[in-house]
Each structure stands twice: as C-alpha cells, then as structure tokens.
Amino acid sequence: MGLISEDIIKKVRESNDIVDIVGSYLPLTQKGKNFFAVCPFHDDHSPSMSISREKQIFRCFVCGATGNVITFVKDYEKVSFGEAVEILGKNAGINLSITKKNSANSPYKEFYEIYSIATSYYKNNLNTKSGEKARTYLKNRNLNKEVLDYFDIGLSLTGGLVSSLSKTYGIDKLTTIGLARDGTKDLFTNRIMFTIKDNYGNPVGFSGRIYEDRNDPKYINSKETVIFKKGTILYNSWRAKDFIRKKKEIIISEGFMEVIRLHTIGFDNVVALMGTSFTKEHLELIKNMKVNVVLNLDQDDAGKIATLTIGEMLMSVGINPTVIIFSKHKDADELIVNEGDSAFINAYNNKVSFIDFKLNYLKQNKDLTKAEELSKYIKDAIDAINDIEDDILKEVKIKWLSKEYEISEELIRNKITKKTNSPNITVKTTEPKKKQKYNKYDKSEIRLLYLMLNNKELIKYYENHLGYMCNEKRRKLANSIVTYTEKHKTFDYADFLCYTIEYPELDSILKEVMEYKHEDEYTMKEVEDYITNIKELRVKKQIETLTEKMKNTIDIEEKKKLASRIENIKKEVLKW
To answer: Which H or E run contains 524?
Structure first.
C-alpha cells in the first residue's frame, strides 16, 4: 500500500458507505437488507452483484468479483489502489495528494512534469501584453477568464518554451513527447492552446488553434506518445466523470468548443472526441459507465455520418443512445452563441432515439411518392430495425413501420433475420467463469473459508480444531486470515480486503470462495462436518503417498515401516 498507512485507508473506507458509492456509479435495487446492481465486471444483463451495507462489501454471484468500497472504485475506474483511496478521500473531505499518476514512482514522471510546466507557461502567456489580441479573440467568442482558467486554456507565442525547458530536460525528451520540432523549435507558435488531460487529470497533450488570419492549418495537435493515446482519451472525461455518474448520462460531442460552451450553460457531463474516430477503447469506456448516452455531434453531413457510426457501435453492445438535433447551425457552440442557451436546452429536451434518427436519415434524398424509392427505404428501415438488440424496442418499431406504410407485420417479420454472428466490434469484458464441479472436500474448504471471512469467531475455532487446508491456494488464504487476525486482534472482512491488495495471489481464491453459492446461516454441526471432511482428505492423501512409497521400494523392512504408519493413521482416524 506504499505511502498510505493502514489507519488512513481504514478511515477513508469507513468514511465512504459502499451503497452510496456504488449507487453513484450504478442503479441499485434494494431486496431485503442488501442492494443489487448489474455487475460492471462481466457482461451482465440482470442484477447479479449484491452490495451489503452491513458488511460494507460487494459480491457478484456470477463472476465472483468481490471487494470493499476502495477495491470497487479501483476496479471500476481502472486506477491503482492508492488512486482509489485518493478519490474516496476527496469524496469524504480527507486530503490525500499522494497518489497522482505523475508521482515519483511513475516511469513517466518527467513527461507529466514537462506538460504541467508547459500548461502553466501557456496560461501565463495569455495574461501578458503579448496575449492581448488572443484575449480579445476569446472575449469575442464569449469566453471569460473563469472559463479559460477552468479548462486550462493558454497561448503559445513565437517560441521560448522549448529553449527554456531543454536546459533542464534535454531536447530529445521534448521532441519525444511532441513539444519540439526541427531541432530546437517550438511545435506550437501563435496559437490558442487547449490542454488535453488523461483520465486522472494529468496534462498529456495540446491542441493549438489559430486566432489570426493566416494560411496555416486551423488546428495542430500533439502527436501520440507513451502518455497520450487519442483513441483511449475523451476530452474533459477526467473532469466530467463525477457529473456523469451523478446525472447517469454522458453527452458526446465532436470538439473542444462544444464541451466548453456547454459548461457555460450548466452541462458538465460532456466529453469530446478530439477529432479522432470513436474507437473500441472509447466504446468500452462508455459501456462500463452504464449510463445513458446522448450524441451531440455536428449537424452537417459528416457529423450525421459520425452519429450513425457511433450510434451503431453503441447499439451493438446494448446501448440505445439518443441524439440532439437542430437546424441552421453546424454545432452546439454556434447554436448557443447565435440563438442563446434556451435554443440548445430546447434541442436537448427534444432529443430523439437513435433508431428514429437513423430512420429519418434513411429518408434523405429519397422521393417516397415513388414506388421504387419507397421500397428501397422500407428495405433499409427493416435492416435498421433488425440491428436493434432490445427485443421490446424492435417490436415497437416493427409495428410502427407496418402502420406508417401500410405493410403487413408478417411481411416485415419475414424479412427480419435471426442474427448468428456478432458485430465486428469487440469490447473487452470479464466473462464469468464456467461453474466448476466440486467434490465434498472442495466444498468443505470453500464453505469453511467463507464462514471464517464472515464470522470472526470461527477463525479461532479453525485454528484450534484444524489449522490447515489441503488445497495450497486455500491454505494461503486461511493462513492470511489467521495472520491478519493475530496482528489486528480482530477481523473485519472489508478491512481485510485492503490487506490482500499486497498479495495478488489471494485474489483468485477469494473469487472462487465468493462465487460459490453460500448461505449466511450455519450451525456448528455443519462446521464440524467440514473439518472432518478436510481431515479425512488429509488422511487419504497421506495414505496415498505412503502406499506409493511402498510400491516403489524393494526394501522389506521399509515396506513394513510404511505399512505400520498407514495402520497407525487409520487407528487415529477411528478416535475422531
């Protein structure tokens, strides 16, 4: 656990109720004293993850994922344990500025450091006399100082950054991370600078926009580096994620200005694609959020095609997005600047389902009064309906198409084909393991471990009456439970899960224990039976080992000794 003490970890865990935290990420349903959610750690379609407020743990009955509030955030956010502690510490008002990705233990510490310095340098430039023209340009675009500071927007001048930084970091490093070009020249000059940050809030790249009339590309972007992968980052996602969780909705836009403009009118759950295509990594990120998705892309032909592509990718993994539509203006930035906040809010409130957007798009450039073109449209519409994963939505659209164009439902259904192949989109998920068949000895060890994890009084009983497991991995877990209890003079499962972070080999056995179908109630007779079964297995293994030795020895005296040991073991068993 590195720099974080056990006391701080415990304080952070106890200050964040697991039901409240998981509920901020996922919709919860209460059943009895526990809460249930669709598990985000495998391709789940019905609530299989149980969250216990009493025990402060979660457990998936399908894939075996288990943990406390810290490990949930760690796995859901795909961050380190320390970063999860920091996230939850911030949530509880406990300041822990110790686990940033650009900390001393990061192999890219200097890269993050350089980009942080560059961000400050560009922001400072904007506030100098040399930045007056750029400030006027931004003011004319209705961007005030508060907004500029919030998004770390700055200004590159004719040069100076690279020559200054090279004295400390060397020109090769600045070239590698995309700040230098042609030896010692600045890549970005005389441009408004938009800072791009990764999912942890570290600056990793820039996009520079011209603000004067000149014959240059409108935008220049940082090249991809080891810390900047365009296909894995959505602009503003690090800042928007808390708002996305709270609103249970993400708005996907096409550029920086839509994100910035929408922030000024109260929409903070907005991210942008940064001019790149929507990737499989983006799709996985969105899918794991398990929130509603709103597409707010450009209204021109290219934007509509992008909306179709992204919408279809989302539909392929069971997400039914909605689409914001408006006329006259290319994007939300232009709409708000020219027609005001209410124009966008009205468009947002009247957003349409993706399938309705697609069905309307398919009508474009078709004269539906002509039989051939109407026939072509209906065929395209049937194909679009066939792509719908939601059976209820598919049924609704079949009936709509039949009624709208007076075509029999039977004809439409005959054209609907059963899908046999998955789309050519692969989203990584943790597939649930096939249920393993256990004998009575496996069941006894697994069940006994579960009871020990949930009933601290049984830990001492295990020590006094058994003290071992025959399976090596289960034995390690049992030993860890005993060691933890001896060290802390008590046992709390939620705290123990923090302790096991330092021992990754325990993770698989914890999952094995937790995915087994358990009852929380138990009797001592049941526990005694498990212990007897485990002892029996140990005896069987001892006898098998001694019998094998007897087979392999030609020494008569040794055979007699081994036979005697086997006999003594059997006599001991009779005393149980």
So the answer is: helix 524-552
- Please state whether 142 falls in left (phi above 0), alpha (psi between -120 and 50) or beta: left
* Secondary structure element (H or E) that encloses residue 117, with its range: helix 109-126
* Mean pLDDT confidence for 278-297: 90
How far is Cα 567 from Cα 576, in angstroms, rounded to an integer?
Answer: 15
Domains 6-91 and 232-349 fall in the same CATH topology: no
Is residue 219 within 8 A of residue 272, CB to CB? The reply is no
Do the beta carbons of residue 293 and residue 252 sit within 8 Å?
yes
pTM: 0.70
Residue 100 has pLDDT above 90, yes or no: no
CATH of 6-91, one of 3.90.980.10, 3.40.50.740, 3.90.580.10, 3.30.420.40: 3.90.580.10
Dihedral of the CA atoms 565, 567, 572, 575 (nearest 10)? -170
Residue pair 546/565 in contact (Cβ under 8 Å)? The answer is yes
Q: Report residue 485 as tokens.
A: 């209890």
DSSP class of residue 468?
-
Q: In the predicted model, what is the mean pLDDT of the chain?
A: 88
Give the single-character DSSP code of 235: B
Integer angstrom CA distances of residue 134 from 211, 256, 280: 7, 17, 37
Q: Is the dihedral of CA 222, 228, 231, 234 positive or negative?
A: negative
- The whole-number average pLDDT for the span 375-395 is 88
Half-sphere exposure of 120 (CA within 13 A, CB side): 7
Does the domain made of 232-349 have the CATH classification 3.40.1360.10? yes
Alpha helical stretches, state H, 237-353: 237-247, 256-264, 280-289, 301-316, 332-339, 341-349
Q: What are phi and psi of 63, to 5 degrees?
A: -95, -10
The Cβ-side half-sphere exposure at 107, using a 13 Å CA radius, reads: 2
For residue 156, give the 3-state DSSP assignment: strand
> In this model, does residue 438 exceed pLDDT 50?
yes
Q: Would you kindly state where each structural domain of the chain is located, as residue ranges?
A: 6-91, 109-228, 232-349, 440-574
Whether 465 and 531 have beta carbons less than 8 Å apart is answered as: yes
Which positions ≥6 away from 510 have C-beta within 8 Å?
64, 66, 477, 497, 500
Alpha carbon distance 183, 168 (integer Å): 16
- The pLDDT of residue 153 is 97
- Do 448 and 527 contact (CB within 8 A), yes or no? yes
CATH architecture of 109-228: Alpha-Beta Complex (3.90)
Give the three-class secondary structure for 134.
helix
Residue 406 has pLDDT above 60, yes or no: yes
Rounded Cα–Cα distance for residues 501 and 13 (Å) = 14
- The Cα 198–Cα 460 span in angstroms is 48
pLDDT band at 199 (very low <50, low <70, confident <90, very high): confident
| Amino acid at position 299, single letter | Q
Q: How far apart are CA 362 and CA 349, in angstroms?
A: 23
- Local structure of residue 320 (DSSP, 8 states): -
Residues 509 and 442 sit within 8 Å (Cβ to Cβ):
no
Please name which of 130, 237, 134, 114 lies closest in space to residue 179, comparing C-alpha atoms: 114
